[in-house]
Amino acid sequence: MTDTLSTALNQHSQDDHRAAEEKYLELLKNDPNNTGLLHLLAISHGQRGELKQAENYIVKALKQDDNSAHLYNSYANIAKYQGNDSKAVELYEKAISLEPGNSASHYNLGLMLLKSNQNKQAISYIEKAINIKPDYIDAYHVLIKLLHKTQQIDKATKTISQAENTGIDHPVFTKLKAQNQHYKNNIATAIENYETYLDICNSDYDAHHHVATAYLTKGDVKAATRHNLAALEINPEHEESHHNIAVIYLTQNKLDLALKHWLKALSLAQNIDYIYNIGVTYNYKGQYTDALSYFENVLKLEPKHYNSIVNIAVIYIKKNMPPEARFYFKKALEIKPDDEQNLYMLAALDGKQDSFKSAPNNYVKDLFDQYANSFEDHLQKVLSYKAPEIIYDMLSKHFDIENKEKLSICDIGCGTGLMGIKLHEHSSILIGVDLSEKMLDQAREKNIYTDLISKDINDFLKTKSNTFNIITAADVVPYYGDITELFANVKESLKEDGVFTFSVESSESANYSLGKNARFTHNKNYIIECATKLGLMIIGTSELSTRKEGTNEIACHSFLLQKSS
User: Fold this and answer.
1) Residue 182 to residues 82, 179, 547, Cα–Cα distance (Å)
2) What is the pLDDT of residues 325-342, one digit of tens each?
3) Is the pTM here over 0.70, yes or no?
């Protein structure tokens, strides 16, 4: 019997389950009530996923020995794998009552309580398992992760030290230390420990994922990208890495790549953030129908998802569907009654002319951040945008820009740099100013500006007294109603005899008027009056249209003003 049992145990340890089971059964014929053999058969069948047979054998064993903590622990394991969690908890508790010093039962019960989010009780049982067995690596691992999850970082730090003091030397603790430093925002130390761990365990996609997050916190996008891609190479189904790499690609305006990874993440888990971000990406791509579909799906899951509601409203503005836009802006105001952007858009849609003197900065920034990737294409192919050409021609005609020495030029509201393209060959200094970082990212790629600054135009100009020979504002003034402050700051920023050139959309009635497209139109006489009062002399004008809306040419005026000496 001893030789046969020894052979069976060896086969079992090498996962040759069927051969081991045959020998257990052969031995059992001579000793039908042997609890050890019944237990071994239960374990083997359980390991093969044959849970019903495993249960039958463990029940037979318990009939012979109803006081065995080990049998109850194994029975609990079977119940756990059968998905009967309440029965598993009951059986683990029975095992502990029979043998309070059984570390495995405490650990397993802790895992079951963790599964049902009973974190406090889970921590208690796993700590008891460690107290019984101080070198219990698996218990330390789970406990430290659980302490991180429950934000008990100081306690996690002490537990890591406790594990190290017992003499445990395992690579996983380097990873846990890295995560602990990460939670404590000691990013450099965390990265160092992550990289040390990955030198040993480079196939751990979870570690690649976490170090990528750490690098991103540090601002090292290149390293974050490398580790996210490494995580996905190891585990292509890791949804969080798909999400994180998509975020990186979105910030880099790599929209197709961002979309690819969010769609994959969504295929792995129905996450409302993924659905929303897919909508955002389609919106940035100018694919408004697709964007609407995803934003509407968000609202099916969360009817008061504010950002989706606002995005839908803005898309309807872009699609020239005012009633639909008004509906969603009103829904947004029900959630945030004092939101300046939504109040501004409703004022525009409802024709409330006196509500705003200029577009809110956050409205302008968000509008052009969304618009940046398709901006030039849309302007030139859809709107037939000609403001830079018209302004440049007027400047050349009245200011003799060709024959002057290199000039100090400021392009306010520079956008993607369409005006700058015309100006850079004439400049010693060419500054671009815009609220939208994403527009500036596009301008930066043209490599024509001395400096690009994301700032409110008025705030910027107030710091640049007597600095520029030329200030340009192509399609900027339509976002200002009252132009008094803007013109005063422009004048202060110009050198003597410096010029300011800009375009406006024309109004025949009021000084300025807020249209349904959320842009201001201006009366020519109002422009002349403001310029004259400030000592800005009109030296050139143009009435050529700078853009279309649909098939209609928009009535426009462009002006060239000079600071009088």
Assistant:
1) 37, 5, 52
2) 999 999 999 999 999 989
3) yes
